[in-house]
Amino acid sequence: MSKRIKKVVCLGGGTGVSVVLSGLKKYPIDLTAVVTMFDSGGSSGKLRKELGILPLGDVRQCLVVLSAENNLAPLFYYRFGKGGLRGHNLGNLLIAAAIEATGSLDRAVDKIAKI
User: Fold this and answer.
1) Global model pTM greater than 0.90
2) How far is it, in rounded angstroms, from Cα 111 to Cα 4?
3) What is the pLDDT of residue 35?
4) pLDDT tens for residues 44-67?
């Protein structure tokens, strides 16, 4: 008898959902995250106002946690300290660029999830 992989869906936002995903990713399951997008400050707020996109911070956290390449996490969290990019973190900028390049948040997340 073959074993079926269980499917688990996590719903939430903020730090909580990324913490839960971090704990679940070590199990042999098909893991899906549905992430709320209510952040209004910092880099997410600026990108929302300037580009008209949804806040990206919580999605970025989940992408980093679920990534197979944990060595990229510091780059996704890197926050610029001066100049025109002051306050932005590289992960949000990368997702914003992927949204513009692909035309949608869904396709952008799919592309970045493969990094």
Assistant:
1) no
2) 27
3) 94
4) 889 999 999 999 999 999 999 998
